[in-house]
Amino acid sequence: MSDPAETRASSRPAAVLDPADPRWARLHRLIDTHSLLRGDFTLSSGRKSNYLFQLRQTTMLPEGAHLIADIVVDYMKAQSIAGVGGLAVGAVPMVAAIAAVSFSKGAPVEAFFVRKEAKGHGARERIDGYVPKGGEALIVDDVATTGGSIIEAIAGMTEEHPQARATRALVVIDREEGAAEKLAEKGITLVSIFKRSDFTI
User: Rounded to two decimals, what is the model's pTM?
Assistant: First the structure.
């Protein structure tokens, strides 16, 4: 008989990629070189920090974008996930790269992003792109601190597409500051390519 706890979202963040995979070392080097800043910062969550992962300096770098997308597409194929989306603006470069790479790898996925609020003109939509109507959507973001952006993205997705579902979220870096636990409370399992402890701060 299975343990009921096994059916609930895990609060223990899982790794997406084995560190022995050469892509792990290549992407780690890019992030360490281009995206890890040290100083005094205020995070989007309002918390103070003496370091910052400015991931868009990696997600918008050609090699970084390709590596992240290649890793995420492999994960989505392994998990049979039909679509990918996230909250603007941090997730947009990732979603676009994942969509393009998924096609080149012969496993095209539906891709979308969620605006923080609906546009005030045109079709006044909050979502751009294609939300999977039947299968699961993987919610992505560059960095997770509290998980707030992931929760907001899922809320925006289900508000306009009640039939859509997301039980997993993937980030490039988990800052290990409570996001996994907060998301697990809402039935969402967080996985990451890296954790904050993978870097020398």
Answer: 0.90
